[in-house]
TrEMBL record:
Main localization of the protein described in the UniProt heading: membrane
Primary enzyme class: hydrolase
Keyword Transmembrane in record: yes
Organism of provenance: Rhodovulum bhavnagarense
Pfam families tied to this protein: Peptidase_S26
Highest classification ranks of the organism: Bacteria, Pseudomonadati, Pseudomonadota, Alphaproteobacteria, Rhodobacterales
Coiled-coil ranges (or none): none
Domain Peptidase S26 intervals: 12-237
Transmembrane segments: 18-38
Reactions listed under catalytic activity: Cleavage of hydrophobic, N-terminal signal or leader sequences from secreted and periplasmic proteins
Keyword Protease carried by entry: yes
Catalytic site: 42, 102
EC number(s) reported in the record: 3.4.21.89
Name by which UniProt lists this protein: Signal peptidase I
Length: 262
């Protein structure tokens, strides 16, 4: 039978092991990579509801939002590096404190405008090429159980939900897919936005289903994203679950393991 002192020593060793494991995990999460699970369809079809990825926190340097709960004890950014146009970034919402994931389309000093559904940067339309359709099943998706929006609505439960797909090429040559659901809404025709210094203009690839920099913060959007609010760059999907939980391994999508984010 173990002595009382031996039991206490064993308990203390367990506590120390757990403590240091948490410290190491916290340092890893703060300095290198942060896990992120896609909860909504605003970045389809680049990112799907249920995609699980790690955010590269070394890409742009560090701010107070690099620490869990925004607790890093400094302001501004250190080891700062600017995102490139076309990067998919995770950032802290300037008002509500949630983490968002969108694509950077406007850099400091740019003007950005949507005209008839086409993105214009610094007064020039970007190249847009038709690329067929994106199709998915009309059913509840992810932990929130939201139905996808469909260009061919109305669609019954279990039916095929489609959206027009295009390839958009930004200045500098970066290309990615975007989706269209409807025409003529506010998001297709906006005022000219002048991106201030130290800020970025972001948009979702699912253009008619994204609250992004086209919408003021007072209307549920994100407005211009301050550089300090950047958390990191999304580079690669690790795996993806089509079910209500990432732990439902039988719902994992076999074609999305380690998929590069373009």
């Amino acid at each position: 039978m173990a002595a009382k002192g031996e039991k206490q020593d064993g308990l203390w060793e367990t506590v120390k092991t757990i403590f240091w494991a948490l410290v190491i995990a916290g340092v890893f999460r703060t300095l290198f990579f942060q896990p992120f699970w896609i909860p909504s369809g605003s970045m389809k079809d680049t990112l799907l509801v249920g995609d699980f990825l790690f955010v590269n926190k070394m890409a742009y340097g560090y701010s107070r939002y690099s620490c869990p709960f925004g607790l890093c004890p400094f302001s501004g950014r250190i080891l700062d590096s600017e995102p490139r146009r076309g990067d998919v970034v995770v950032f802290r919402h300037p008002v509500n404190g949630s983490d968002f994931i969108k694509r950077v389309v406007g850099l400091p000093g740019d003007t950005v405008q949507m005209k008839n559904g086409v993105l214009h940067i610094n007064g020039a339309a970007v190249q847009v090429t038709a690329d067929g359709q994106f199709s998915e099943t009309y059913s509840r998706q992810g932990p929130m159980g939201h139905y996808p929006r469909c260009e061919n609505a109305p669609v019954g439960e279990g039916g095929t939900c489609t959206k027009s797909r295009f390839i958009e090429t930004l200045p500098g040559g970066e290309s990615h897919a975007i989706l269209n659901i409807t025409d003529g809404v506010f998001s297709d025709n906006t005022p000219v936005f002048a991106v201030p210094e130290g800020h970025y203009f972001t948009m979702g690839d699912n253009r008619d289903n994204s609250q992004d920099s086209r919408y003021a913060q007072s209307n549920g959007g994100v407005g211009f994203v301050p550089a300090e609010n950047l958390i990191g760059r999304a580079d690669r999907v690790m795996f993806s679950s089509a079910g209500r939980s990432l732990f439902f391994v039988w719902t994992w999508r076999s074609d999305r393991f380690f998929k590069a984010i373009e």
